## 1
Amino acid sequence: MKSYHLDHLEYLETEAIHIMREVAAEFERPALLFSGGKDSICLLRLAEKAFRPSDIPMPFLNVETGHEFPELIEFRDRRAAQLGAKLIVRTVDQAIANGTAVPAPGEISRNKLQIPVLLGAIEEFRFDCAIGGARRDEEKARAKERFFSFRDAFGQWDPKNQRPEIWNLYNGRLNAGENMRVFPLSNWTEMDVWEYIKKEKLEVPNIYFSHTRECFRRGGQWLPVPPAHTDATKPDPYAGARPTAKEPIKSLVVRVRTIADMISTGMIESPANTVDDIIAEVSAARVTERGTRADDKASEAAMEDRKKAGYF
Amino acid sequence: MSNSSPISDLRSPISQSPAPVELLRFNTCGSVDDGKSTLIGRLLYDSKSLMEDQIEALERSADLTGGGQINLANLTDGLRAEREQGITIDVAYRYFATPRRKFIVADTPGHVQYTRNMVTGASTANLSIVLVDARQGVIEQSRRHTYLASLLRIPHLVIAINKMDLVDWSEQRYLEIRSEFEKFLPLLDIKDVKFIPLSALNGDNVVDASKHTPWYVGPTLLGHLETVHIASDLNLNGFRLPVQWVNRPNNPTNKELHDFRGLSGQVASGIVKTGQKVMVLPSGHRSTVKEIWTYDGTLPEAFCPQSVTIQLAHDLDISRGDMIVGLESLPGMGTDLHAKVCWMNARPLQPGRKYFLKHTTQTVQAVVTSIDSRININNYEVQPEPAELVLNDIGEIRIKTAKPLVYDGYATNRLTGSFILIEQGTNATVAAGMLQPPLETVKPEYNDFAI
């Protein structure tokens, strides 16, 4: 007798496809946040599964800090082109130039500066919904997030006043100026993402695999040495993010486990060369994925504060 | 130690454990100090699902605020306000896995005013854990949580009698509490109930069997979660596919897709096969399933809860909100509905109010025509014809919708028998509704003609 039963990946997949289709059906102008990272790579495959043989009915949007790993940008552009999707890129540099983003004195990370850029892009294109690859298992504040996360006209998340989400009935109704962030991977774990990448034979940027890289030690992490500053007519975009004399450079065999930009991504020493190796490594790992993210270590509520301000 | 992965470990057998096949969703409920968060923390900790940086973060906050004592509850209390006040203000989801199963945990707060969160967390659960403090026994909230689990038709219930260490592991006390529950459980619709004596704080009977309860011969909590039979929780009777999105490729380069007209959706119940006769509602048109299309190829059959795209043999006018159903078991259809609701908003429900009603994939205008009763979920008494329902009230109401709904009773179908009410203007989700079974099913001759 046939077993009418889904395994855990099939269950997570059908749940995510359902959510993708709800977005396409209920919103006028949705966008899909695609960074080229592993979570958003899964989102793209889920979009294909939800909408093929039609085109994916929404553009891709990415906010660049300007400190990206070049491998990630190359992959992002190539993958969007393969899928025939429109890719919209907005940058922190542009936003600083036109005054919509103002760096805090002395702060080198542009993580927080992504917030006004994202909100600006939502306004510019009048997006009423942005699909993101955030997962609840990543971080404590994210664990309280809904699939359909309502944001007010200022892009703010109010954790005390979330819409109850019951059964599979998502309330996507908005008034003018408000928008929704939707997270189809809410119930996925880091392991689920890698198992799905394996099952679907998805390509990922090569920085997820083991390679040799110059790193230096800071804040308990191995940070990548930024690319050389060549254009002397402009200020060094990596000023403050370069190793000092007390931070010797070491050549290490490393990979990334989670990708922010070059300033906020800790490299892990790893020989993992294949997706199978990574799955083995994740299952044996003794620290969480975001343990390698400097942006989360600012305080115990770092993510909560950024999300309230409009972060995805 | 993110920087120094122990390379030798990577090839060890532990890392090659096969992927777990089943997913169990459960929620925990109890009143403020029953130890829900501690229990989840214990499950994560003892099943080795916690990572070093999470444990370090616990230790860091223990040194700062906890006098050096690790507080497992801090694992789930994610927001600053919660940590400061020592409470859980919203549903938090946690994930862990054992070699047997993967688990999604909804940690739902137990305060009286947060019933809506429990309904939220429990609506998708296979199993509910109701925590009871062994010293206090059954209190008002125990009855409330058990009632809600029954109302939402959660297939499995665990009564976790916690803090057994504080009653000297007394079997007598365990049996007293058990018999208190057994006085009112027969009034409810719960088929599978398990009682487990434990101590979340010390870990007894959570993951490892306790040496303090030789009189208890049942499984530990995790043992039960890993083995409880959930394969029959899905509804495979009576095919229902609410149409979610009509899939019509624009300018397809592939000529074969030129006439492609797919009806995309998630199977809400039952099984559908290629070649099967189906009916489209509310129109009543019949057709045959020509193809079950998926990105990974066509399927001979699909079942609940798969997401698929169906092509029918006839080119019918079908849009989002319509439902494709099997002929062997037809649903009800109508604009006059009778339902139980859980009211979730500070502004009370009064008869005559208009709302948006979202049911499966359609949203329609609806007016609440009457409130028949309010159910006191602490003693299960029914108060007829209350003037209004306030936040966290459960009641029976009658609704009239602007367009007919195609539906089943919630007791037989959680997905085609449920709805939410949305307040016009604020767009707040104000009620969770569970439909009573239709008085009659759709008549096949209604609007029926062969095409």
## 2
Amino acid sequence: MSENKKTLTPAEEYYIHEFTPAVHKIGRFTMAVAFVLSFLPVIYFYFVKGYTVPVSTYISGITAVSAIGIGMWLTEPMVYWPILGSAGTYIAYLSGNVGGMRFPVSVTVQKMANADITTPRGQIVTVVGIVASVVANLVILLCVVLAGEWIINHLPAAVRASFGFVMISMMAANMLMRFGMNGGVAKALPKVWMYMVAGVVGFFLGKFVPALHTWGMALAVGLAILVAYFRYRSDKAKLEA
Amino acid sequence: MGNPAVQAMNGTIWVFAGILIVWVLVQSFLFWRLVMSFNNKFNLVSKEEISSAIQTGATAAIGPSLNSIVVCLTLIAMVGSATAFMRCGVIGAPGWELLMANTAAATAGVNFEDAGFNEGVFTFAIFCMVLASAPYFINTMITLKPLDMAAAKATESGAKVTFTSYMADGAMYGLLSYSLLNNYKGPASIAAIVGAAIGYLCWSKLSEGKKGMGAYSLAVGMLCGMLFGQVCATILG
């Protein structure tokens, strides 16, 4: 079936042909430099200062770390890309705290601007929100590191314990926000419950099948995207009928 | 920070941490400048929306930053303030770094308090922490451009519906469902979810038509969730 080329707005044209290539130019360059910079302390201490341990220890370390990380290294950035966009993913993987901070920030700013990441507007607000979170996080962390244990010792025990509920509270609020973007809970649920079920299935597969232990998140998102693909095919067929 | 090796190397590591932090800020600045020049050309997002996004980004970062303090302090005790800052503030996440530091010590056959935890082992521990995150950099350099090219192709086609919007929805709900379950720690978590929902919905209702207030809905939801969760945990003992 042939499809006619869509007439793009000037902003969409610019977004595809100018903005996106520039994102990858900046992203690839900064990540390549960061890769080298992150190994600098090790290179300095090992080769300049001579702080060594047997090479076999390094080989064991590489094996152990790779065994833990390989599943996430291969899948995680692609899992977050549909929500953070490319610029957001580059920033998030250099600044860290992707799942716990950059992801909820993206959901929140996209809801606030009522713009999906697939649109130029969504890309702009997402990058702005993530950059603000990077600066805020660095300032807070610097204060914490400098003030050290003093802060934690002066917080009441109940307040410290309540931090254990930060993540689940944030995810719950994010879920409601996303429902809001899809027209509210009543309108959104009939359309999206299948994605949620796919996420739940992925979680339990990762939790209870030992071989899939590190693949849980990738499975959750992968299955949800697979369901999305079938829905897309079905909706497309209905529209073209 | 009791270990003599950690103490001796801490000052030097601050220099490397400083370089990395500057690089993170440089990257953020470059992307910021790019989106701002794009926005100035086409006026896609208003100034109010930009300042709302800044407020939202900054306030939404507070909760998770505080949440990671406890893990970060544990990391400071093990590997010193400079390494903890370098790994938690740039590149890594506290829980992941703590796991990697422990893996490194276990591989070297020492504990952080042991005399055997010398400069060589500490260098090895830093190596393991760096190694745990560095492959993500390579992944992003390889995979993101082809993904964008596929998305652009879909946008340029004349299709009435495009897969990218379905994919964004699917990924979002799949990931949120997974994250909710992954952070579930018993009945008090349900109270936290209910509290977050009530807080978020009430604040959203209150902030309707009021400029700037909406930026705090996530923070309010989070605080209510923490309150409900902790009260429930205390009652349940």
